[in-house]
Amino acid sequence: MNKILEVNNLTFAYDKNLILDNISFEINEGDFAGIVGPNGSGKSTLIKLILGLLKPVKGTIKLLGKDINSFNEWSKIGYISQKAASFNTSFPATVEETIAANLYPQIGLFKRIKKEDMKKVHDVLKVVGMEDYSKQLIGNLSGGQQQKVFIARTLVSSPKIMFLDEPTVGIDNKSQENFYELIYKLNTSMNISIVMISHDIGVMTEKANKVLCMGNKKLIMHTNPSNTKITEILSEIYGDKMHLLLHHH
Ligand SMILES: Nc1ncnc2c1ncn2[C@@H]1O[C@H](COP(=O)(O)OP(=O)(O)OP(=O)(O)O)[C@@H](O)[C@H]1O
Ligand SMILES: [Mg+2]
To answer: Per-residue pLDDT tens for 145-178?
Structure first.
């Protein structure tokens, strides 16, 4: 099986504050992996390390078979950050301009969009069900709609793997379900590997084939866990708050 991401003996600290202590795991082509763990357990930090935004103290990270220190195919890597939902809503760009900007990383928004590129833009908008909004200003969309546009934005450069950091915070339950269905579709019909931080027990039991469980500076990888196992893992992490998670489903 093709390894998309390999993390080996990774250790990380902010100054002297040890966050990750010698963790290892791998993501294969086609995986849908969920990352779970309490607040402050280092989930967002781990993704930032993988994206090269932070430097490890020790250990190696390989993306698409290449060490991240020499990796340069960043357009093959999608990332939806934890703060995407609080995007600056006064940004004066339309949906299609926002997406096209990802096709012109050097030139950015102000280049005229070529016809064949515009087709790509509209194709990805169709995938996320936002084709009717292409001329709207991004700032005028709801949080859930913006999130779909951000997904489309990463899709336009044909990613192999997509990292999502709590992508449904601030999105209502019904839209969350639609959103998870969309991510699942990218995974199953476009063969994009998914690594998603989420506290949602439903998406873990229904969609994920791997659960990466973080806590106490360690990471434990569970491959093809049963629903009972996932529920066990989450109740260990969240204890009393578990009923809140279950309440949604
Ligand atoms: N830039 C930073 N400088 C110093 N410490 C940081 C920094 N960012 C995060 N931390 C600390 O590192 C730890 C891990 O943070 P991180 O954001 O990775 O947690 P998380 O698992 O994503 O939490 P949450 O579920 O709340 O998003 C926390 O204790 C946090 O306070
Ligand atoms: Mg976080």
So the answer is: 998 999 999 999 899 999 999 888 878 888 888 8
Range of the domain at 39: 3-247
Counting atoms of ligand 1 from 1, which one is nearest the CA of 45? Answer: 18
pLDDT on residue 177: 87
Helices (H) and strands (E) in the chain, counts: 8, 10
Q: What is the CATH number of the domain that holds 147?
A: 3.40.50.300
Q: Quick one: the chain helix, strand, coil %, rounded to 5? A: 40, 25, 35
Q: How confident is the model at residue 229 (pLDDT cuts 50, 70, 90)?
A: confident
What's the CA-to-centroid distance between 9 and ligand 2, angstroms? 21
Q: Judge if the beta carbon of residue 168 lies within 6 A of ligand 1.
A: no
Residue 222 parent element (H or E): strand 218-223
Predicted model pTM:
0.90
What is the pLDDT, as a whole number, of residue 248?
A: 46
Ligand 1 pocket: which of 14, 36, 81 to mutate (most atoms <8 Å of CB)?
Answer: 14
